[in-house]
Amino acid sequence: MIKVEGLTRTYGSYTAVDDVSFECQPGRVTGFLGPNGAGKSTTMRIIVGLTAPTKGSATVKGVHYHDLPNPGRTVGVLLDASAQHDGRTGREVLTLGAMTMGLPLSRVDEMLHLVSLSPSEAKRRIRNYSLGMRQRLGIAHALLGDPEVLILDEPANGLDPAGIRWMRGLLKSYADRGGTVLLSSHLLHEVELIADEMILIGKGKIVAQGDRKALLAHNGKVETLVTSLDNEALAKALTGKGVGVVPAGDGLRVSAEAVEVGRTAVEHHIVLTDLRSGDGGLEELFLQLTADTQREGAVA
Amino acid sequence: MSAVTQTQAPARPAAGGIPFSRLLQVEFRKSWDTRASFWLLFSLGAIVLVAELITAIVTGVQNVDDVQFGTFATVAGFISQLLLPVLGIMLVTSEWSQRTAMVTFSLEPRRGRVVQAKMAVGLIWTALTVVFALLMGAIFNLLYGAIAGNIDWSGGAGITGFIITQTLAMLLGFALAALLLNTPAAIVIYFAYLFALPTILAIGAALMDWFKSFQEWINYSDAQNPLYDGFWNMSGSEWGKLLVSCAIWFGIPLTVGLRRILRAEVK
């Protein structure tokens, strides 16, 4: 649905996007993940034709965005929730969108209802909106034309926890009905929960892509977090087997599969209170892959 | 929050392109649906009304003899010549200052069509303003005539010229806005052009002989004067000066500005 090939964008000597290629499939949520300034927004702007690429191309449904006759009906776009006229009401913004796309104005009410903006909120001017409300309005605007493809830049920004969960459900069901979603974020946890596919980008280059499993396999590191009634004994037993163990919080971080840790516990009659695969895997991978691109320098 | 399922399945057939009439409708609506644009239009009307009133009172009190329809129409025209360009400017620049260009151009990526629609909206408002100004002129002329005892309908000969100059004023604002994409800058440049430039050109003409005849070709506002005196009586050289200065002050900024709008990165 979305196909990006060899996309490069330079500003003078600075390369914002460097030979980026990926595809987004229908029925899947693709998460575009990277630290601030990694090139996520620039890539998205190029896809929707707001920025010209220096090299490479981006197509939606096999055509360049410019060649879509009424793009709002095919691609829902939210690049910046703040990019709306402060003096317009929320309803007015949606009305203008519906008029442009040639939609019945009843669609405006449907969308306001969908994103839970009340009629009185919709009558307020955007100047008085919180970021979360702007974000909801932006999502409503993106969904207005009932598009097959959604391109959302940091859509969870400014939403409260309930709002983030709501959006997750919305996008999930949208993809389940066959829609294609590309969303960006700089927060791993946000994307991890909804994305079927993840693209990690740093300094304009894609550093890894694939689903969660593929990414973790790429990492090549198996880790398990375990807590038991006798951590000391468990650590000793695991070390005895030649497995790396480091204390982590109340428990231990073990460089082995959960099954291995469980077996060791049974052998030594140690009661486990918590056993799970190291969820730091992705985060560590993320930080590691983008370590040299992080502003903070060596983080991991 | 349970409304997730309310959107239809995302598989509606894509509609045809966006007809120009729809873009025009949308851009027209955008020209009055914000506070800033609404009050600009409102004050345009209100100031014209007040100015006409003052003219009627002053001329009435002073017993000026030659008050005619043209007097009132000229007063209205002077005001609208100041504010129409601001309207033309805001049609373009509000998209950039408020960053709505991102939304506008992602809904219609053929940016040239959006600019055309905006210019058409500027022309529509110019036409409405001219009609309003003439209407005000007629009403106040009637009122004045009713009080003074005789109604003079003369002075309406310059109407064609009046319409053209109002249009040119709006278009100049539009072109400067396309070039600068910044509201305050475009307004400042327009007023500098309107008030400072004639003086500068006059000084230049007074100091240098060769500049005197040269400046006639670049002085946009001077070149428009013959239009008032009678559109049909303009000489070839007057037309030439008008067209040349028009190309310089309107054509060049608009061409450069259009190129910029069509190619610019929209953030």
Describe the structure.
The complex is a heterodimer of chains A (300) and B (267). Chain A is α/β, with parallel strands linked by helices. Helix content of chain A is 36%, strand content 26%. Chain A has helices spanning 40-47, 90-101, 106-114, 119-122, 131-143, 161-176, 188-194, 212-219, 231-240, 258-267, 280-289, and strands spanning 2-11, 14-24, 29-33, 55-60, 75-78, 149-153, 180-185, 197-202, 205-210, 224-228, 245-248, 251-254, 272-277. Chain A has a 6-stranded mixed β-sheet with strand order 5-6-7-3-8-9, sandwiched between helices. Chain A has a 4-stranded antiparallel β-sheet with strand order 11-12-10-13, with helices on one face. Chain A has a 3-stranded antiparallel β-sheet with strand order 2-1-4, with helices on one face. The two termini of chain A are 35 Å apart. Chain B has one domain. Chain B contains 10 helices and no strands. Residues 1-14 of chain B have low confidence and may be disordered. Chains A and B meet through α2, α3 and α6 of A and α1 and α4 of B.
